[in-house]
Specification:
single chain
Length: 261
């Protein structure tokens, strides 16, 4: 019993360290003071209206949503195809290819960003909306790939073999057998990829040029010490917004454990 108490105490300390600063930022979003200060004297919703009226915030939000959506769709297609290709490999190169596929998520974001910036500069590609999408897709693909390849490893091949024996071609087997069985894993990967893309800042810094996504807007405002109440409101909104796909992904991942054998 004493060991259980020690474990729970350690867990409480870790979670407090992680979440108390977030709770404080959320409270600051409702503070009447233009500069964050503790204790909070009074609460208001005034900053929420000001933040929504800020054109720069709305443009950054729209850009973040567009980039995250396109990067997620790209990741769903490429990540699923890559996972299916690796799952079918029988040679010793399978592990090497799998390692290369997950490498972008293992590398520090600053290295990925610098590499992408150097690549775009080498080919004379101007930084734009599409360079941000390309940068985000590099790590979003890995998220979908990891989910799908894990599902494929647990899937029974009996249904696909039976489909082939009954005369179905590869595409028909994929559409009617494999895709429904992988759907929850693909969906979970897509939701996590969207959340990761929406609040990504390091790679975006090297690929955005003069454009501002919402995380870049936050970074710039904090660095200059401007619009801090609006920053707190935006951070609060991002926490709520990204929590939704993460919770949905967790639910889908739980369902993906129910594999047809």
């Amino acid at each position: 019993m004493r060991s259980d108490a020690i474990i729970w105490a350690a867990v409480a300390v870790v979670f407090s360290f992680l979440f108390i600063p977030i709770i404080v930022i959320v409270l600051y979003a409702f503070s009447t003071a233009p500069i964050p200060a503790w204790p909070i004297a009074a609460f208001t919703l005034h900053w929420f209206a000001d933040t929504w009226a800020d054109q720069a915030v709305r443009q950054a939000l729209l850009l973040s949503l567009e980039v995250a959506s396109v990067a997620t769709v790209t990741a769903m297609i490429l990540g699923t195809l890559a996972a299916m290709a690796v799952a079918r490999m029988q040679s010793g190169a399978k592990e090497v290819v799998s390692f290369i596929a997950v490498l972008p998520i293992a590398l520090p974001g600053i290295l990925t960003g610098m590499a992408l910036a150097a690549y775009f500069a080498f080919w004379g590609i101007n930084l734009s909306y599409w360079t941000i999408v390309a940068g985000h897709a590099t790590f979003c693909v890995v998220i979908v790939y990891n989910n799908v390849v894990a599902r494929l490893r647990r899937m029974s091949h009996s249904l696909t073999d039976a489909s082939a024996d009954l005369g179905a071609d590869a595409f028909r087997t994929f559409r009617l057998i494999q895709l429904p069985m992988m759907a929850s894993a693909i969906g979970a990967g897509a939701l996590l990829a969207f959340a990761l893309s929406f609040d990504e800042v390091i790679v975006t810094t090297f690929t955005a040029g003069a454009q501002n996504t919402l995380p870049l807007w936050i970074f710039g405002a904090i660095r200059l010490g401007q619009q801090l109440p609006e920053v707190n409101v935006v951070v609060f909104a991002i926490i709520l917004f990204t929590a939704i796909p993460v919770l949905l992904a967790q639910k889908l991942i739980g369902e993906s454990g129910k594999v047809v054998r």
